[in-house]
Amino acid sequence: MNIYSQKQRWKILLLLAAMMIGAASLWYTNKLVNKLSEEENKKIQLWAEATKRLSDVSEVNSDINFLSTVISNNNTIPVIWADQNFNVISYRNLDSVRATKPNYLKKQVEEMRAQHEPIEIHIGQNLFQYILYKDSDLLIRLRYYPYFQLAVIALFLFVSYLAFSTSRKAEQNQVWVGMAKETAHQLGTPLSSLLAWLEILKLKGTNEEYTTEIEKDVERLQTITERFSKIGSAPSLHKENVALVMKHSVDYIRTRTSNRAVFDIQSPGHEVFAPMNIPLFEWVIENILKNALDAMEGKGDIQVLITDQQQFVYIDIKDSGKGIPKSSYKTIFKPGYTTKSRGWGLGLSLSKRIIEEYHDGQIFVKSSEPGKGTTFRIVLKKQKV
Fold first, then answer.
1. Residues ≥6 apart with Cβ < 8 Å to 302
2. Does residue 6 sit within a domain?
3. Residues 247 and 222 in one domain
């Protein structure tokens, strides 16, 4: 039951939809920019023609007022009127303060020549001048507007995703806690009854071998109930010998596994301590070891290596199973992820919660190779002796 492959498809579809919206926005805005650019070009052509007629003494019949109005109406497009050597004669819609500084107008001429073809104005025989111009601020802002718009949309989606993820995690936490507490509560009643019946069997002289085995199972149920009851509340941590805790956890699994699985524990030559809640921590180790046995199909080697790293304790659990794809390194710790047909995908998710939230440590896939095995690493803060 893997819900994350379907979730991944939805993410891809949403990404494609966002890309289509972005492309449509860019296309439409680019169309508007081109249209506005054409309109500005026409205005400049009209402005240049008006300037030419005003400067031409032969145009005695020209409507001076109309031509002056055409020229004065250009309040947006930066324009320079230059001689045939591109020396500035006059300018319009440029920064008048900066125009007094050296090379400012010269740089504007170069920029305008690079952006648009200069418009020639013939004022006499072999005499001509140039009208130079560049895009208006409005056109420039409009050209970059879709990118700004997409950035705002992306920021909005990112913030929305964070808010949704936080809300979803909070809801998941409530479900986890509620389910764990309810499970512990439901186990409590029959467990109390079993303890009473066990004492009755002992009083009646029932075969001690039977009562001993029943007592072990009852103790196991008590441990499971204690584990579930601690979910959702801050468990008490105590200084524990890491090697002894690991040995106890491995021995428990070893006695319930066939001889085809070989367990090996390697620890430092000295004692290493870390703050732990034993019932919860052993739950983590059991989950990892059971997953390792499933990956090896009950046959292979499981190595546990405990390393003292000054401020931290590293616990590496390596199996010789089928391995995990690199793309699933993080996904395997999410609720609902499993490769087993009858699994619920909760073991590693609970393990991650126990290690990171309750023990302030880390758990992750250190390495894995298909067909050769996987190594899980648990990192705990070391406690001084």
1. 261, 262, 263, 264, 289, 292, 293, 296, 317, 318, 319, 320
2. no
3. no
